[in-house]
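Progress against Task 2.4 (sequence-to-structure conversion) is shown through the following example record, which the project officer requested during the mid-term review.
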Amino acid sequence: MKQIKRRRRRLRINNPVGFSLFCILCLALLAGLIVGVYYLIEYGPGACAAFSQYLEERDATPAPTATPTPTLPPTSTPSSDNANTPIVGEQETPTPDTSADSTAVPSDYTPSTATPDPNAPLYGFTIGLDPFRDSASRFDEEAVYNLEFAFKFKEYLEQRGATVVLTREDNDRSYSDTARINAINDANCDIALRFLCNHLDSRGTVGCYAQSLSRNEETARTIVNAYIATTGLSTRKSDGFEADSNAFLRNTDCVAVTLIIGHWTNSGEREKLLDSAFQELMMEGLYNGLLSCLKPA
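C-alpha cells generated for the chain above:
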C-alpha cells in the first residue's frame, strides 16, 4: 500500500492569487518605508530638540516661583485688527500672564533730560517705536524683552538728536493697534518702527526680516539690510522682506515698518538677543538704517 506523502503548500509565483498578494505586500512595505522617511525628515529635528529640552528641564534646578504682580485694568479694549500675536506661530487665544516683571524698564534707564544737539545726526526727526505684544499676549517673555529693548534704543536715538515716542511703556495693559497708531500719528512721527522677537513652533528657525506696504519696500529693505550688515544675522522670506498690509502699516500717517529682530524660540538666537554687547550691534544697525531713510545720501 503506497504511503501518501503530504506536500507543503507553497506560494508559487505562477499562481495569480499568490502573485497578487505578494505584489500588494511589497507595495505596502514600500509605502510604509517612504512615509517613515518623510516623517523622519520633516519632524525628526524638532522631536530631537524637544526631547533635548525636556532632558535639560528635568535636570535643571527648579527656579523659585515669582509672586504675581497685580495688573491694572485695561484702559482700552483691543480692536479686532490688533494682531497682538507672533507674525507666524500663534494659534491659540492669548491669555495674560502676570508672573513676569510687568514694567520691563531697565534698572539703569534714566529718561533723557538733555537738550537735543542741533548738530546731532537725527536732530529734528521724530521716530515712533512700537515694542510689539503686551499683557494680552501669552508670549510674555518676548513682550517684556521687546519693551526692555525699546527703552534702550530710545535712549540710543535720543543721544543722536532724535525725538522718540514709545507706543507703550509697560506690560500691565493691553494696547490695541488703534492706540498704538494714535500715539504715532499724534506725535507727527517721521517714521515708525515696530519690532518684535518672533515665536515659532520650529526651534530651528532663525533669521530676521522686515514687513511693510509694497510701496514702502525700499524703506523696509534699507532698515533690514543695515540691521543684518551690523549683526550678521541671516534673513528669512524674500531676502529679508515680506509685503504686508495690516492695520499698523496701513493707518500710520508716516512710513511704518515691522522688523522681526530674531527668533526667541531658537536658543542660539535668543542667547544673542539677550547679550548686551550684541544689543549694541542691534541698535547700531537699526540706527544706520533709520539714518539712511531719514537723511538719504
